[in-house]
Every structure is written in structure tokens, then in C-alpha cells.
Amino acid sequence: MLPLVASVLLAACGSSPQRAPRGVLRFVDTETAGRLRHTAAVGRAASAAAPAATRVVASVLAQAVPVLLTLLEGDNAVGELEERLVECARKAERQVNAAYFGNRSPTRQECGEEVEVDRCGERITRAMVLGQRKHEVALRCAREVLEERWRRPYSIEQRYRYYPHAKVVERVSREEESRLLKEGCTKELWRTIKPDLVLHENSGLLLKSVLTVDYKFPCPDTNKPQWKEYGGNSAYAGSDQGRIYRDALGGKTFLISPRMGVSQ
Q1: Beta strands 159-163 and 192-193, pairing class
Q2: Quick check: pTM over 0.90?
Q3: 211: left (phi over 0), alpha (psi -120 to 50) or beta
Q4: Total structural domains in the chain?
């Protein structure tokens, strides 16, 4: 078993921004809004007439983040992006479970078993190890999807330092993060967040998010995926990841999990 260092525990789960921007659009124009209304009306009519087994569920992201329809330059593109990112979660779930358990999912007891202790004396459970492995697979997959589908900047596991009272956010470089972890200066990362995926509108807005996504792999898989709640010793006590991501970066925040797909 590979040892898990403090960075695993600190990460809420960035790479350098990818792709060049193709323009700046900060709103949904009248034509797009009209198209949305028309699409919704047609969808409701078709849904009412179609057999239950053949009805298509509308994209969660298209409904909740309509600006994506403009940024992705196509009505179907949002749904395709969503489907591909969800499939990354399911792929990770299948591959890692198969490697550890064959053709089954771990039981609740197996998820809760302690497999090692980190250098700070904190217990590492099998659920934590599985979650880390699944994140690695899912994020490799997500990078491929975004390279193909998102023609604007994006960040993967980018760490940000956020000061809630001052409403100030700054990017933490990979070099700084590595140095602090190597030196054991985890307190310097205390006031930081690290979302899995952040989609930016253009290269001039790398501290702003159009969409922020975290992959979640509940263990056992029957558990409901949810945002991490920050405890009393945290810089963000009383809040959860989703709220802090929104406060720090703006934009919409969503969870992606193998069973639930996209959810809030």
C-alpha cells in the first residue's frame, strides 16, 4: 500500500490553465434565452407524449448553468460534456473496485477498516484509500474530456488560498504547495481550498469559475455523496466545500458521483 501523505488529507480535490480563450461572453443573450425556453417547451411536450421508458432526462448543467450553452457553442454540447464527466466517475469506480474486490463493491465494514496511520497519527481508512485511487483515475479521464470539449481555460486540482472576511482569493503555485508539504508546513495550507475541476471563462479570469466540480466516491456506494463539512478547527468552520467554492470563485458548484451523476 502506498503511503498517504498529508496532502491527501488536506486536498479537497489544479493544473495550469489549458487552452486559449475564444472570446468573452458574460451573459446569456436574448437568442439563447429564447432557444432555452423553446427547448424546454418542446421537451415537456415530447416527454408527455413519449413512453416512460424512452423519455430523455435533460442535462442538469444545461438547466442550472445556462451560460454554458453559449460558452460551449451548442445546445447538445453541455449534455455531452456532462455525460462524459459522469462516465469518468463510473469508470473510476469500476476500475478501482475491480482491482481491489473483483466484481463487487466494498461493504460498509470494509470501507471503515483502518489500513494505516499517517505521520500525524491520523487513521487512514480503506474508504480514504479507495477515494484517492478513484480520484486519480477520474481526473485523468476528466482532463481528456476537457481537452476535447472545453475550448477555454480550466484547472484541475488547483489550490487556492481564500480569506473569507476580506473576500480575497489567490492561486497557490504547484511549487509552493510542494515545498510546504515537503517541509511539513501544513498550517500554511490551512486557509486553502482545492477543487477537482474549475472551468474558467477566459485566461483573464483564472480566479473566477463558470463551473466548479468535485468528484465524490461514497464508501459504501449506497451512501449519499455530499460536500465536506468544515469542522471547528478549520478556517471555514460552519460552512461546507460547495459554499466556500462559490464564495471564493463564484460560479455554480456541483458534485459528480458514480450513482447519482451530477448533483448539488
Answers
A1: antiparallel
A2: no
A3: beta
A4: 1
